[in-house]
Amino acid sequence: MKPAAFDYARAATIPEAVAAMRDGARPLAGGQSLGPMLNLRLARPGKLVDIKRAEGMRGVALSASTARLGAALTHAEIEDRRVEDVTRGLLPHVARGIAYRAVRNRGTLGGSLCHADPAADWVTTMTGLGATMIAQGPAGERAIAAENFMLGAFTNALAEDEMLAAVEIPRLSPAARWGYAKINRKTGEFAMAIGLVILDGPWARVVAGAVEAPPALLPRAAAALLAGETSDLDAELAERLPHLSPADRKLRAVSLRRAIAMLSEAR
Amino acid sequence: MDGDGGGAGIGARVLRKEDARHLAGRGQFTADLRFPGMQDVAFLRSPVAHARVGARRASGDVLFLDDLTGVADIVTRSSIPGYKLAPWPVMARDRVRYVGEIVAMAVAANRAAAEDLAEQAEVEFEPLPPVASCDAGRAEGAALLHPEWGDNLFLHSRFDSGIEAVAASAPVKVELDITCARQVMHPMEGKGVVAYWDHRAGMLVVHTSTQVPHLIRSGLAEVLGIPQAQVRVAAPDVGGGFGYKCLLQPEEILVSWLALTRKAAFRWIEDRREHLVAGANARQHHYTLTAYANEQGRLLGLDAQIEVDTGAYSVWPFTAVLEAAQAGGNLPGPYDFRAYRAEVFSVATNKPPFAPYRGVARPGVCFAIELTIDAIAKAVGREACDVRAENLVPGSAMPYVNVTNKHYDSGDYPASLATVREQIGLDAFRAGPARDEKGRYLGIGFATYTEQSAHNTKVFAAWGLPLVPGYDQAHVKLTPDGALEIRAGIHTIGQGLETTLAQIGHSMTGVPFENIRVTLGDTATTPYSTGAYASRGIVMSGGAVSRAGEVLAGRIKAIAAHLLQTEPDAIEFREGRIHAGNASLDYADVGRAWYLRPEQLPEQVNTAGLEVTEGYKPATDNGVFSYASHAAKIAVDPETGIVEILDYVIAEDCGRMVNPMIVEGQTYGGAAQGVGTALFEESPYDDQGQPLASTLIDYILPGPTEIPAFRISHTETLSPHTAHGIKGVGEGGAIAPPAVIVNAINDALATLGARITQIPATPERILAAIAEAQA
Ligand SMILES: Cc1cc2nc3c(=O)[nH]c(=O)nc-3n(C[C@H](O)[C@H](O)[C@H](O)COP(=O)(O)OP(=O)(O)OC[C@H]3O[C@@H](n4cnc5c(N)ncnc54)[C@H](O)[C@@H]3O)c2cc1C
């Protein structure tokens, strides 16, 4: 389980990294997903460009309505609130449930999103928050809505020579409430199901995550939540997740009901 | 035993000698060893389960079987009638029989380069129909792994004490179908071997991560066709063995062959993927049981069919059929009944060769018999714990010979059950709610088992093994400066023998614990032992150290008495010194007299000096039986199928505890593995014989948050047969958890009418059982 030989370079800036990618280099962030793939020789890049320390990749920029987080910030930095939280505790809560601390110390927000594992936590979280992915390529920046970023299992919307530079996260209001229910067999494992519900004034989102595909937004459930009504969650899941077995859909429904139940918990 | 019970002797809770280096990260494992010019080995392994191997091509330093000279197959004989031989070529000859079997060996300056070479090798595989399960192997017209056999059975064994009368008359009959998953043993340190040629000694030196260095020496010499005097096997620190490292492995032979023929240094360090694929070799049993009982739930008879998914070859030296012998022989467990019939099929399958894993067949048989007891209780409408207690061999019946001729030497099994019943709070629990505030169903489960330990010559001979253990040896020596050196051929693989053997040495000689040094596991420096397996180390090597220490103590006393001008009988060892009345000596005074100032010695001094080698085996070969009861309280989430262990208690008795902390450590570790067996660990195969769990994403091990804080209590019923009344305890913890946890799950799910009879009890299986019950 040793990787096939590859070259390694560290990029000082994002344009430098993009240039290396145009030459066929693959970006390396925390290496927590890419490392195992290299070791198993499932990935055999001729060259890796390390993007963790490229300028701007670890920055935080706050505005009245958003926080822009550099893609190379780690799960642990978010967990420890070394990155200012604009989501009323949602991001630190999610970060704390990812993998084990050793993985969180290295794994990055951007690496996780780009890797696009359907069961990963950030993929569902960013979809729920309505975050915006800031991609950077040879022609400059481009914004991609989170729900359009993951195209399928392990496939993202970036072009070959584009990288994820940052994630723009909308601020939640002080009155916002959320529920995040990750069902997994064992602490630190990927999710069997994720239910995420965010309620912020007139705005609500309900997302079923870890569905072997991009996370599924459930607009009827969100509308019902805003109206204070109950919706037929099972029917909406059946429509949105026809590829899952009834038992697997049931588990997603359980995670969503638990997430909804968390809305009333004080935080 | 003048030092007995003292600060560091037998019974003391002293900290482990080995911890200082391990806690500082200074342990020295196989992968830590470096030798000049050492090259790495990588193996090309079969990607298919069953195939004829055709043309092979490779470039660079890549070897196939034909390139080896003078290497024999691993041939594991057994004297059991009907057992079929399955010679195991160290690399594929004309067939491969499991995914992971070695096809080629690549050698390069480092592992990555060796893997590059291995993956470039080209081998033609002409597929044969795979046998991926016992059912497939026993089916009419099944493909044959070893065509000369005529079937796929290593062995079909039977035991019958007569069941017909009970079957015809028993008022209660319970049937169960029970399945245990295939597992890997997953020691923290994988297998590894480094071998080189020692030009000065004219010797092959093999540092290998093994439990049984002296056996490996015999095995290597036999397969490589060289004299044993030309082989030294030295095990460095070993990070867990569990049975996986008590086998002669093809990798060990191949790396040794390179060193022998090329007269240089080579190594192979197993990686996790190799272990998960080529090491999936344990635990997979299937039971079809019919139990007979009376209306009170008294077990009258048991009729069992057992299948062991044995894999492709027979491991050396423990054979492919040790598991079957243990499964059929141990199924009756701690229960008192006399009608028993068992038929055991050791089925050859296209999977890695079966090996004995901590507890050997007993986690499976304990799971099977304990689910049976609960099923009987349910059938007669009584509390399972009561029915269990009434069926156990009572303390008043000890010593007790059971239906399969196991000689239970001592103990009170029902008392241990009563202890855990009390500690887990069964009565209060029954009076309380059946669900918790989260809506989870609550349940309590129990199991009681015996752990045959330190069984010896006759028992192993009856299991047909090619190598049979006898007297274990230990060497003790007082040094010129009064320290004690202990040498034994057993090895410490995490179980703390450097500490416990020193405690016994201290008890016997009085030499201060901190001045005792224990050397183990090196055939060049230690006397013979078959090694660490079958919960035997502390009884066997401990017994040998005890005897050697006793003899040495006599010689120390003789010299000390002369120096103090008194009689040997007047000498006492205490507080690290040698006393006679008001006078006292240091151990160094005696050491100095023997080695450096012989003019001080008595005239009739024993010329063997201050070095003693002694051998030991217990008074009986039948083994001495440790035992325990475990109980767990669990919660099952009916919506997710996830199980949480809320409380777990253990009441164990392993005779005299040399060091209670080490007993507890062994018990914690074993029970943690048992939790893995119960809830998480599984190496599934598809019907093509492809393993489906080749990384730790798919092979789930319990982590710290899944392991409960086990609460352990002890009793000490001394064995009448062993030195100091000690019994073994290395395996026991792993035996009961699957039974306990699944009994608890079934207790919780009883109101839903659901029942689990398969381990691991995964969320999927629990949800399916609930759905089926509700359908
Ligand atoms: C034991 C274990 C348990 C885990 N459990 C969980 C879990 O419970 N939940 C969870 O969500 N995740 C889990 N993970 C995954 C973990 O979160 C990883 O950190 C994450 O998936 C990848 O982040 P990384 O920074 O390590 O990326 P890398 O491994 O370095 O890269 C991953 C992929 O993304 C690409 N890439 C990385 N950064 C960029 C970028 N900025 N732009 C373009 N492409 C990029 C790489 O080329 C590669 O293809 C687990 C991982 C392990 C090892």
Automatic annotation (TrEMBL), chain A:
Annotated InterPro entries: Diverse_Substr_Oxidored, FAD-bd_PCMH, FAD-bd_PCMH-like_sf, FAD-bd_PCMH_sub1, FAD-bd_PCMH_sub2, Mopterin_DH_FAD-bd
Keywords: FAD, Flavoprotein, Oxidoreductase
Pfam families: FAD_binding_5
KW Oxidoreductase (keyword) present: yes
Every FAD-binding PCMH-type domain range: 1-174
Oxidoreductase as UniProt keyword: yes
Molecular function, one GO term: FAD binding
Protein name listed in UniProt: Carbon monoxide dehydrogenase
Organism per entry: Rhodovarius crocodyli
From TrEMBL, chain B:
Gene Ontology molecular-function annotations: iron ion binding; oxidoreductase activity
Domain Aldehyde oxidase/xanthine dehydrogenase a/b hammerhead: 24-129
SMART domains: Ald_Xan_dh_C (SM01008)
InterPro entries for the chain: Ald_Oxase/Xan_DH_a/b, Ald_Oxase/Xan_DH_a/b_sf, Ald_Oxase/xanthine_DH-like, AldOxase/xan_DH_MoCoBD1, AldOxase/xan_DH_MoCoBD2, AldOxase/xan_DH_Mopterin-bd_sf
Pfam family, one: Ald_Xan_dh_C
Keywords: Molybdenum, Oxidoreductase
SUPFAM superfamilies the UniProt entry points to: CO dehydrogenase molybdoprotein N-domain-like, Molybdenum cofactor-binding domain
The name this protein goes by in its record: Xanthine dehydrogenase family protein molybdopterin-binding subunit
Organism: Rhodovarius crocodyli
